[in-house]
Structures are given as structure tokens and as C-alpha cells.
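A favour, since you know our C-alpha cells better than I do. Go ahead and set the record down below.
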Amino acid sequence: MSKTAPNAPEDDVSRVNRHKDRALAQWFWHRYVRGWLPFLGVAVVLMAIDGAMTGALSALLKPMFDDVLVNGRDEMVFWVALGFGAVFVIRAVTSLLYKTMMAYMADKMVTRLQLELTQHMMRLDQSFHHRHPPGHLIDRVRGDTQELAVIFDRLLPGVGRDAVSIVALLAVALWTDWVWTVVALVGVPLLVLPAAILQRVVRRMGVTARDSSAAASTRLDEVFHGIATVQRSGTEAREGSRLKTVLDRFVKARVRVAGGQAAMGSMTDLVAALGFVLVLTLAGRQIIAGERTVGEFMTYFAALALLFEPLRRLGSMSGAWQNVLASLERVHRLLEEKPRITQPQGELAALPAPGSETVRFEDVTFAYEGEPVLRNLSFTAEAGKTTALVGASGAGKSTVFLLLTRLADPQSGQITVGGNPIARMDLAGLRRLYSVVAQDSALFDETLRDNVVMGAEGIDEARLQRAIEAAHVAEFVPTLAEGLDTRVGPRGSALSGGQRQRVAIARALLREAPILLLDEATSALDARSEALVQEALDKLSAERTTLVIAHRLSTVRHADKIVVMDAGRVVEEGDHDSLLAKGGHYARLHALQFKS
């Protein structure tokens, strides 16, 4: 008992890991593979035929040597040649068919999984995306799913073709001489323990490699999104060095994975070497003594030589399977991530009637992780009026918009619109209440028309033209090569900052939502662009409930109410003149901005 006790925890861990691996494999099989069973069945039959041809090939060597080459039987030449020709034709046809079928299944499975992952992550709330940078998620969607294609590229063909090859070749070897076969395979049990150890190493290194790949994708995403900043600051060498560190870690892990997989094949070669030495020693003496023919030996020798190649591939496949499991585990973990923001269950609260979209925050506290961003925040934005949120960076202003649109939910407190809690409202209906224009409104690499319409249905050309004219988009459309059908580039890179903002305003105008959220909508614009955008915003906010986030106090001096925030709390409320007269927080911010 004392001798086995120290190994007990490790055995328990191994047992748990094996159970998890089986559960993962079953989940993947039932969800992504089982539907392909008829198609897969045909492919496996073709693989089996391909695999069986190696046994036929080795069996044909006996008549070729004994009947044709040694005994000179002329009538056998045609039939032996026909046999060899048939073997290679059958292999060519079956190999072409099943490889094409497996490639088709692999691509369909990978694209389905990529689509499901992306759609799933688009439903997850901002706290998830706050923890996982875009580069990390891109690598999960692209890198991990591509790793799973190995199942169809290598693992299933290994089972269908190589397993049958091994059985066929072993049958030929045993039929030729069972004693030689036992002697040749005497070293196979020596593979078991080293293979088990290597599997663990490959699995661990596979996880490290995929994590390093995700880190590299995140670094690249940051570099290319911030390329202008990198170039202006002259930090190309610094960013290159940081990327090199991540890539070196990735290469190191990948090399270890490749080395572990290769080691499994190399161990098979060592066993093969031992088998060949023993068999050649035994068989050579029997042939010299006339107890065995050259044809029998060549058939056996070919069967044994061909036998170790599929064994070698199957040995390396265990390492590949560990790599697949590492990726499969991460994909499964992502798909198991539950959205925290969901459609309310039970009776839904009514959406506000037109003209009654008063917004209230009542003792709202919110934190991503650690310190709260909002602390017992309370304020009211009256329907049909403009309420401005001002304060230093980090005061929690943008978080207000995040919670108001239910991209995240507060840990405590309540938010109401029209007197009803938004947490009880239909989620899609709630989000239709808002039009948002942010400092960096997202544009997509589609046409200008698509970016304005943004999937809205039933938009006629006249309504679209009114929106783009009111937002001053019509002013620059004639300068574009294909007008409204011009692609705007990734993130709208083909447009200037002012043009992108006007597109976002046109989108908001077309949406015709009763509540308008403006987040630093003019802060990054030049004077002329700001004037045009501000004019469009004034049209947009007319008769709407409007909440404005602004650092430049000059843009909100005419707001009906100004809410001054500091460290997640409301410290002052009032209009511009009354807040200046108080001489408090707002007055100090105003003096700081306008001291010149």
C-alpha cells in the first residue's frame, strides 16, 4: 500500500483527464460528425480498400519471385503484371475519392464551427469581451478550428486506411510464417510506456502553442490597429521586439509538439530495426538451408516493411490527437460560455410610449472586475430634453451608455426608461429605442450605402436621401468613385474622420430611434467638420431624449441639464449658468478649460 500511495493522486488526475477527453470527443462526434455518417461510411470503405491493397501488393511478390523470376513460368507473367496494375489503379481511384470527400467534410465542419463560434461570441456581453481581446478571439475562431481539421485530414484516414493496412499486412505476414512474425514484433510492447509519456508532453506543449498563437494574434491586432501611433512614435523596433518574444515562445512550443510527434514515429523505427535484425538472421539461415523460398521471404519482408509505416503513422497520430484535444477543449469552453445578458423570462415590462422616454439611474453600482466603475449612481434624463454627462476621464460616463443599452448589467441598483426597468424589457425592443453616435463609430468594409442602412429593412431611396442630406453625407458622395456604392475600407479607412462621423449620424437619423446617445461625437474633428457634424446632431436631437457625453464643455452649454460625474458618482446637477454660479466641480472644470 505504501508503495502505490504516492502514485494515487497522479492516477486520479489521469483518470479525470481521460474522462474529460472522452466527453469532449463524444460532444464533438454527436454535434459535428455524426450527421456526416453516411458520407463518412463511404469514405471509410474507400480507405479500407486502399489500405487492403498494401496487403495485396506484398502477397503478389511471392508469385513474382517464385513463379516468374525463379521458375520462369511464362504463363504467369501476364497475370502477375495484371495483379500489380490492378492494385495501383484501385489505390489511385480510392485515394482520390476518399481524400476529396474528407477535405470536403473538413472544410464544411471548420466553416460551420467558425460561424457558430462567431455568432455565439456576438451574443456575449461586454464583460466577456473586456476579458478577451479581439486578437485572442480571432485565433480561437481561425486557429483552433483549423487544428480540428486534422481529424479528417489525418486521424480518420489513419483509422480507415492504416488500420486496415496493418490487419492486411499482418495477415500476409502470419500466413507466410507466424514464427517470423512473432519474432519481428517482439519489441512492440516496449512502445507502450514511452508513448504514454510522450502523449502527455505533446498535449501540454499543444496547449502552450495555441496560447502563444493567440497572444501573437492579439499583438498583431494591436500593432495594425495602432499602426499610425507606432509610426509617429518611432517604436517599430520596440513593437517588433515584443512580437518576436511572443513568436519565439510559439515556435518553441510548436517545435516541441513536432518533436514529440516525431519521437513516437522514431520509436516505431527502433522497434522495426530490432524486428528486421532478428527476422533476417532467422529467415536467412532457413533460405540458405532450402527450408524457405526467396518468394516467401520477399513477400514476408515486404509485408513487414510496409507494416511498420502505418504503425509509424498511427504512433504519430496519438500526438496529433492530443493537439486536437487541446484545441477542442478551448473551442468547447468558448461555446459553453453563457451570455449574461439574455431575454427576460416571464412577463415583459412595457416599452415606453412615444414622448415618455425618461431615463432614470437609481443607486446603480457596476464593476467589470475589481474596483467599481459606478458607485450608487443616480440621475434623471427627462424625455424630449438634452442631458449632458461631464467629468474627468474615468468618471464612468461611457459606462452609463453601456448599461443603458444592456451591453452589461449593473451589480446593484435599477435603470428605468419610461418608468419601467430595462432589465424586464424585450431586449431587441429595448435596443431599438437608441441611436448611438460615438467618437469612433464602427464602419465596416462594405459600401457606403450598407454602412448607412446597417441592415435596416424597408428603407426606400427617398428616405435614405433625406438622411444623408441632413447628415451632410451628400456633400462628399459625388467625390467617391461609385457614389453610395463605394466601399469605405476596413473600419472606414477610405473616409476622413469627419466623413465617418457624418455617416454614423446618417445611420442614426435613418434609425429614427426616440433616444439619442452621443459619446464625444465631435471631439476628434477639425473646426469645419465639427460645425457640419454639430449642425447634423442638432437636427438629430430635436424632440428626442438625448444624452451627451462630452469633455469639451462648450459643446454642452445649451443642454437642458448637465450631470457632473466624478469617480462613478454624481457630484452636481443643473444647467450651465447655475453650475457656474455654484463655483463647484463644474466651475473648476470650466475654468480649467477656458483659463486662456
